[in-house]
Amino acid sequence: MIENLFPNVDWAKMWEATVETLYMTAMSTVFTFVIGLALGVLLFLSGPGQLWSNKLISTIAGAFVNIFRSIPFIILIILLIPFTKLLLGTIRGPEAALPALIIGAAPFYGRMVLIALQEIDRGVIEAAKSMGAKTSTIIFKVLLPESMPALLSGITVTAIALVGYTAMAGVIGAGGLGTLAFLDGFQRSREDVTLMATILILIVVFIIQFIGDFAVRKLDKR
Amino acid sequence: MIHLKDVNKVFGEGSSSIVAVDGVSFTIAEGEIFGVIGYSGAGKSTLIRLLNGLEMPTSGTITIGGLEISSTRGKKLREARQKVSMIFQHFNLLWSRTVKDNIAFPLEIANISKVERERKVAELIELVGLKGRENAYPSELSGGQKQRVGIARALANDPEVLLCDEATSALDPETTDSILNLLTDINERLGLTIVLITHEMQVIRKICHRVAVMEEGKVVEMGNVLEVFQSPQEPITKRFLSQVTEPAEAKQAMEHIKKEFPSGTLIKLVFVGERTGQPVITSMIRQFTIDVNIVQGNIAQTHDGAYGTLILQLVGEESIIQEAIHYLNEQDVRTEVIGND
Q1: Contact between B78 and A123 using a beta-carbon 8 Å cutoff
Q2: Could you say which residues from 142 to 181 on chain A have a Cβ atom under 8 Å away from some Cβ of chain B?
Q3: What is the value of ipTM here, to two decimals?
Q4: pLDDT tens per residue across span B80-90
Q5: Cβ distance B271 to B286 under 8 Å?
Q6: A11-219, what's its fold?
Q7: Which end of chain B, N or C, is surrounded by fewer C-beta atoms within 10 Å?
Q8: DSSP one-letter string for A19-46
């Protein structure tokens, strides 16, 4: 039955592409989470009236985030080709897509982290200070736990954007469902391959959204 | 215990600068409950934040228990803050932690072992009357319960001073009373010095030993609560006092009685301490042939004794009324003629 609906689909290849997409998404999401969190916390703490209030750091970090957030991803990939080659020695394969994915997504997520942290009641930070908390304690025991639902819904949105980015990364031969849909589906006029790849991408997106929503609901005690 | 000397705090620079605290000096004794009253913007929030170094003075010195807070920084200041803890108007609890874990937070900061933390938290939950709510999240608690968590959290590291930043201003009158009772209890049981800021004279009346009145960054009046209640000097102090002694109905009642009895003299009597227990009015009526209407009466308990006011309308011959007033004065009751015909 399925064979009749999708006559041109090579299931082994489709599975391999799905795994590549999942790999790229998962790896880039993890790195984006860590780097974006660091960027967001830095942006927050260096902001006016905050613990590390520093105009220079705030301006530099802000400019970095704004520039990389604004470059269209497809152009960012091309701009980063020399950097990727230097870093990994190749520009092909799922690994080669990671630098561009992370550099494209981390500033975007960093901005969301900043917004999440700004939502925290200043009084709670003041209370922690009044108890004699160090800055590191304030970061790990107040800022991050208190903004966790927003941080998680932010990383969910970012991970979903990253699924889209992995498809675009197909241009530099990253592999995955995007490449498959473009090369095997679109260019050879095999609509069933494109459709199947699309369905699989949608399933991946839905699963990410589901996990994200579930985690946020579980954690939010407000 | 706490000494402030010529403390100034200026925010901003040049023409846009704001003087929040202006030349404040006072001393608070150990075990005392010291209240600072003022309207919003009077500088009392800044003043209380100077006491734990959340704000640093522009000039002047602040010493708590021998340590000069105003020149302490870094690790030493953080350690000092564990002994000068604070509760807040909006409680400022971590919503992501349960009651138990909120109270344990300052103990984690002080690097107390897990076993010891659990023992201490159980003890504090008992003290503030939250048994059975240990595993609730703040969102599941009422305002009064949240403030109890705040108090337990503030007491976790056995502080010497407790700073209360408008701690009851977000609570209803009944809950305010229960929190004030808890604070008095803690003060008596643990010998804790309490500094509180408020805009409610009721709070000062109920628990404070001494009060400072702040206006535009300056302390304009200071003294024992009963003394300040008896003979307020500054207009702002009188305004705050009227919160306690002259409810809005009194004015209406007076207007009403003036219409009812166009003749006569309205006087306000102030009784302090033991005088509140004596039948002065009865003996006055027996001695003088005048009619007495009670317009409004009020007795307020302060920490040091009672403070009462009574507004009377005296009807009769002018000369006898004067004699009656003279008699009251002789009985050590302060009188004030507030309306005549």
Answers
A1: no
A2: 142, 145-146, 148
A3: 0.85
A4: 999 999 999 99
A5: no
A6: MetI-like fold (1.10.3720)
A7: C
A8: HHHHHHHHHHHHHHHHHHHHHHHHHHHH
